[in-house]
Write a structure and sequence with these properties.
By secondary structure, this protein is α+β, with helices and mostly antiparallel strands. It has one domain: Dimeric alpha+beta barrel (Alpha-Beta Plaits). The strands form two sheets. Strands 2-5-1-6 form a four-stranded antiparallel beta sheet. A two-stranded antiparallel sheet has the order 3-4. Helix 1 runs antiparallel to helix 2. The radius of gyration is 16 Å and the shape is globular.
């Protein structure tokens, strides 16, 4: 099963990771790719460079970043291959132990 894990950091947007955090994350990513549970992962640039596009009743509204609600800021994502939702949760807990405080929303990806 594949799961999309959407990461929302607990740190203020733009807080750079420390060198040791980058090294630990690099090791986790390398292990995940080598063993096959990590399909893809990327971090996002600051929301100031982004936009939100919303359609409601046929009307499109575009809002340029930055976005002020920290809990809404997506810091990155990972596509994970796991045996079950519980397995994905365990892998996500490992990620958060390296990334630090924050929230990961886990969504199983539809596979026809």
């Amino acid at each position: 099963m594949r799961f999309l894990c959407i990461y929302k950091p607990g740190k203020p947007e733009g807080t750079p990771p420390r060198e040791d955090e980058m090294a630990r994350m690099g090791q986790l990513i390398e292990e995940g790719k080598k063993t096959g549970w990590l399909v893809a992962t990327e971090g996002c640039l600051p929301s100031a460079l982004g936009a939100r596009v919303r359609q409601s009743d046929g009307k499109v509204t575009i809002t340029d970043g930055p976005f002020t609600e920290a809990k809404e800021i997506i810091g990155g994502f990972a596509m994970i291959e796991a045996d079950s939702k519980q397995h994905c949760i365990e892998l996500t807990k490992r990620f958060l132990s390296v990334a630090g405080d924050g929230l990961c929303e886990i969504r199983q990806v539809y596979e026809g």
